Every structure is written in C-alpha cells, then in structure tokens.
Amino acid sequence: MRTIVLVVFLLALAPGLARAEIKVVATVPALAAVAREVGGRFVSVKTLTRANQDPHFVDARPSLALDLNRANLILVVGLNLEAGWLPTLLTGARNGDIQPGSRGYLDCAQFVDLLEVHDQPVDRSMGDIHPGGNPHYLNEPRAAAAVARGIAARFGELDPQHREQFQAQLAAFGKKLEAARTGWESRLAPFKGTPVVAYHRTWVYLSRWVGLEEVEFLEPKPGIPPNPAHIAHLLVSARQRKVRAILQEDYYPDATSRLVAEKIPVPLVKVPGGPDFQGGQSYVDYMARVVDILEKGLRAP
Amino acid sequence: MIAVLALVVAQAQPVTPSASTMNPDIALLVDVAAAAFSKDEPFQSGEHDPHGNGFTLQQAELSLGKSVDPYFRLDSFIVFGGDHVELEEAYATTLALPGNLQVRAGQFLTRIGRVNPTHPHGWDFVDQPLILGRLFGGEGNRGPGLEASWLAPLPWFAEIIASSNKVDPDGTVRSPLDLQNSVILKQFFPLSDAWSLLWGMSSAFGPDAQIYGGDLYLKFRPLGPSHTMVALQTEWYVRRRQVPDDTVEDGGGYASLVWRFARRWGLAGRYERVADIDRVGANVTFWPSEFSRLRLQGSTENADGERGWAGFLAFEVVIGAHGAHPF
Q: With contacts defined as CB-CB under 8 Å, which chain B residues touch A69?
C-alpha cells in the first residue's frame, strides 16, 4: 500500500519536474507569437489579449491576474500602451518575479528604433499620446526581429541551460523572417510614396518600412473618435492629396471609415490587429497576411 | 593610475535617473455637481454626494502612488472638500510575498462589496448607494488597519481577504474584538471571452454589530470593434446589532444595470431598497475622453409613503497619471 502511495505521489510530481519550461505571458498576441518562435519547446506562452482586441482598452479581468500569478516572465509592449489595465493586474498577481524592474519583466520597446518620441513637452490637449514614442511597432518585421533578439537574450538569462537552443531558434526565426521580408518588400515596392489615410497612429512603423505616406488620420487627435467637422476636412484633403486607401485594424469600428472610403472613393483596407495566436498563427504568417491585404487593397484602381 | 582615476570619476558621477521615473504618479481629479432636490433634507448618505440645491464640490482628489522598493508600493488619496482636507486612503501593498499572500497596511477602504473599495471616479452613479451610508457612514467602511489576502491555488480566481480596521476613530480599543474584523471571499469566472462573473461574499464583525453581505457582478463585453458593455451589479447586506436586551436586524441593497452603447455614451439604472426607503434612479453619461465625464442623473424615492425626487448634473475631470481600473 505504501509503495502504491509513493508511486502515485511520484507520478503526480513527475510532470511538474519534466516541465521546467519558462512560463511566459505576453500582453499582445504578436509578442506571444515571437516568443513562441524563439522559445520553442522550452517555454510555454500565453497572451493576455487577442488580435481583435484594442490593446488600449482591455478589461483587467481577474483571470488575467491568475495567468500573471503563475508566470516567470511578462513581455510588454511598453510606452504606456498597457497603462490602463496592466498595473492593477501586476499588483494583484502577487508575483515578485515579474514586477517592473525585475528579471521577469521585459519591456520590449527598449529594443526598437522608436518613432514619434516627443522631446518637447506634451499634454493631453494633443489627444491620448504616448510621450515615450509610438507603441505600435509590432507590425514592422525589422522591429519584430529586434524584439526577438531581446527576448532570446532574456530567455537565456532565465534558463541558461538552454541558452544555445534559444540562440539557434532565434537565428532560424531571423532567417525565415528575413527571407520573407525581402519578398514582401519587392511586392510592396510599387507602392512607395502612396498617400493613404489611417484610422489611428498604428501604422507609422509599417508606413516607414513600405514607404507609404500617411496624409491624414480618421481620428482628429490620437484616441479621439472621428467627428463630422474633421471628416469634412479630411474628405477635401484626401481628394486633393490623391489618397489611395484608408487603413485600419480590425479592432477599430468601421462605420465612419466605410463612409469616408465610399465618398472619396477609395478602398477600405482592414488588417488584423495581430496574429491569431490561439489559432496557432505564426508571426510570419500574420505579416504575410497583412502584406497580402495591403497589396490587394492598394492595387485596386 | 589613469584607469583608477577614471573609475573614481565614474563612481563620483552616477547617472542621474530622470525625474519622471523617480517621482510618484500624480493625478488630480475634480468632481463637481449641480443638484436640485424636492426635499429640504434629502436622503443623500455619502460624504461626496451632492447634499443640497445648487452646486456641490463633491471632491478634489489628489492621488500619489509609486513602488517604494522591490517589496512594496504606496498608494495615497488626499481629498479636498469644500472646507476640509482629509486623508481618504494611504496604504502600502506588498508585491513579493511568498505563498500567494499580499498584505496591505495603512488607512484604506475595506474590500467589502463592489462599491465600498472604490472612489467616486469609479462609480456608475453620481451618488453612492444608500446602503453604504446606512451601514458604514458617509465615508464608507474604512480606517487604519491591516489586511492580508490570499490567492487560492485553484484553476479559477478565488481570493480570500481578512482585514482588521479601527473604523470608529473615537472608539476605545481594549481587545482585538473592539476593532472591525472582516473576512471576504471573491471569486471570478470567465464564462466566455465576452461574459464575466464576479461573485463576492463579505462579513464584518465589529464591537457592536455584525454585517453579512453578498455581491454579484455580471458583465458582457464582446471582443472586436465595439465599445458595447452591459453590466449587472448588485449588493445586499444584513446587519445585526446588539442593543440592551435585544438584537436589531436591518439591511438592504441595490441592483444596477449599466449599458455602454457607444465609445462615449452610456446609460445606467439603479433600484435601491434600504429599510423603509425605495429609490429608483437613472442616468446618461457622456465621456469626451477617458479623462473627462459629464453625467445627468435623476432619481425618485419613496420613504414611508412620502415621495421625493432629485436631479444631478455632474462633471468630472482628471489630469496626470490615470491609474488602471480594477475589474
């Protein structure tokens, strides 16, 4: 009897011993997808939000605090993108390993060559702006590659035994992404200098990479929803500047964008806000889909 | 020698951390309301409620908070009223205790129910529920004290909170039983991506009263390009008090329904019952941004057969750090 109890006890313990993986929680699916590529089977990855969720407005559901309670590493986009919901979750998580400033907290903005960093004093009369820089860098493959390097280094610190594997997986991901990027760049090359209208300032990194020219935004100021006066001005200016498309993420409402697109008239190009991480979509697949949609939308006469 | 000198120089000039990272997060929040009542002495029970006809400065709340060191964070809320300043809350929270434990120490609002732990900024109505004023007084259930909470290692979110507070500033304490000791259980169930259920049970044992309560929060917020949110919230309490030769029981509660039908617009309705008072209220809220709010509210109450009504127009603005909202 005693042996059986011991065996059952050991068996119950065994999965815990075998799973010495790093438990990673990412705030957005794009970070989760990159972490999964770099970490492979030595990490388990969860994301707190989904691709169709606006990362500015997330409910701090207590179940998310539970994920953080059990995590070894939290990956954040940073630049105050998650300021409206993450701090309360982190405090409630009771996990000293992943508090800001500790090794289990990785702010991925530090690896990126940031745009829209405000050197001049800013305030909220300018809208809901991010003074430290624009946080929407994950739809740009070079930024994602830089983030992947940072994540691999942190994985290596947390799990030195598998440092080489992380570097090898990073190299494989980098190679795959690099090859895909060259293909995407040649496909998107004809659109260099194309004037477009974007909903929110979520496209600045991608626009710089492709060479799109964002002449207007549907939001009169960041975070302020479109209003009639602004739309009237935008219609005139978009026609004058020969805008070719309106770009937005799936998670923004499209009633106004549809109307504006019809009036100009130009196509409304809607892309997913991130990879379908739960559905198994990889970062490269997600970017390939964004490039597909963009190419199709911008080519339309 | 030069290397040593360089090292000394380097040590003598440490990198100055930027001011913005060392300062606490500071915010100032102002609530002001215009009110009209049919009665000369209306039933408002909250210290921050509009109390009479005309304008009321509900509060100007200054909040300061930041991590203290790797082990604690400090949060404080200083409220300026029309003619007084008071420390609403000031407490430290542990960040890295083992065993899923967390301790709060200082002056704080206890986590009884849904509304009591929150400030007017987090409310769906201009005024606080009648039951809170009836049971806890105008400032809610709070006082200097110590709270320990534990996140149970279960597949769902279950938190047990035990707290001891000196809620009566003038009370004499001869034993721990002269303090208010409370035990609270909160459980959360993510029913789906869109549906959430939070369920709480509270009990508080004071020197001359025991309070038992239950609260429920059911929220529907679909993912995707919509700001639609529907939430049902309800809290009910029973209080037992020892009076000479007898025990008196009273209680009450409320149920409210909030419907945010657009990014900037929301509707809310509330039914309350406390002892012999019934009150029904409704409001419409407009948020120009996350940092400002305009709310028009009307309510009518029936107290022992006598009917009264109230109308409010409330305005709130906040500058500075805008802290994350709890669920």
A: 100, 151
